[in-house]
Amino acid sequence: MELRGNRGEWSELYALLKLLADGRLYCGDASQNRQDDRFFPILKIFRNDQIDRTAYTVNAAKKEILVSRTNDCTIDVSQEEMQTKAHSILNVIKTHTGTFDIPEIHNFLERIDCKTIKAKSTDKADIRIVIHDLNTGSKPELGYSIKSKLGGNSTLINANKDSTNFIYQVINVDHSQMSEFNKLGKFGAKFNYLKEIGAKLSFIGTARKETHNNLTLLDLGLERILADELLLYYSTNLSSLEEITRQETNDDPLILTQNTTQPMYEYKIKQFLLAFALGMTCSKPWHGTFNANGGYIVIKEDGDIICYHFSTAMIWKTTFSTTPNSTLQAQVAIFSEKFTNRVVAFSSN
Fold first, then answer.
1. pLDDT tens for residues 13-30?
2. Among 184, 235, 236, 55, which Cα is nearest to 130's?
């Protein structure tokens, strides 16, 4: 068999083997440090939510993993072997780019019933883990979204012209200036040109109704807050979400902080990040359900694995905006609408 995938896809398989080998799911702090005194014993792992899924059960006493396959056949694999194979995958991930195969682990993957690199899932949960909560005694099955830093920074929201575009009215621009703007290729050049001609942008709405509805469900003012943060990103030198939100708080465009010191904008953005990490998308209606109901797992650059259970601490400190690729930048254009309103549509990662 041939199994080809990129670093992010191979990272999911690495996480499966590494977690089974460790037998523990460690918690992380806001700086992505592992907290050795805070962990959940792992009882069982599933790669998907299908009825006929393979189960990987941890036998801590024997230091073995019981693999219960879909054909009712079961095998035992030592945690030591899981650790060795996980290390092999990690070494290849660190030294390869693009898509690649790791033929030397094919036989092992076949033994443990892993036929694909990336598990199929109907939601944002990349892996499902039965943990033992030592504080409550409960043993829930929880879904986790996997974020890997082995191949560079992982993306939370990918720019897409059909789903993530925000539309603005351009004030003080004529047809010749529209044409000149549309000839420019890069975001920086486009925004510098708007500044040079004294044009102003006023938010109209999101390009896709599902995006509007999902943001409105989360918070009535969130769509406008994100629209203002996009403008701050493209019109200033700010890039981290923490910096941008601090500036928006100072500007207070929604007049939320005049009579309070509560973190109005910061809280709303944090809830947006959490919702997007665990369930919300821009492409289909969201009903407020966190599909990755356990939280998210982070694979660090050194291969260490930590988890965050419904926490915004890490994601808030490490999230920043980036400019979309050149193809999406070229699609940012001013166009006439009913010959009166001139609007520009753009988005960012």
1. 999 999 999 999 999 987
2. 55
**Tokens at residue 16, please?**
């499966």
CA distances from 37 to 13, 27, 61, 130, 131 (A): 26, 9, 20, 19, 16
- How far apart CA 108 and CA 119 sit, in angstroms, is 17
Identity (one letter) of the amino acid at 139?
Answer: K
d(CA 262, CA 184): 41
CB–CB of 81/87 below 8 Å?
no
Going by C-alpha positions, the residue among 64, 53, 84 that lies closest to residue 23 is: 64
Q: For 107-132, what is the mean pLDDT?
A: 85
- 3-state DSSP percent of the chain in helix, strand and coil, to 5: 35, 25, 40
Task: Retrieve residue 233's tokens.
Answer: 């990103």
Beta bridge partners of 336: 342
Which of these, 52, 199, 46, lies nearest to 119 by C-alpha position? Answer: 46
Backbone dihedral region for residue 203 (phi beyond 0: left; psi -120 to 50: alpha; all else: beta) = beta
Q: How far is CA 230 from the centre of its chain?
A: 18
User: What residue has token string 């006493």?
Assistant: 61
Q: Residues with Cβ < 8 Å from 189, sequence gap 6 or more?
A: none
pLDDT tens string 41-84: 999 999 876 777 899 999 999 999 999 976 667 889 999 999 99
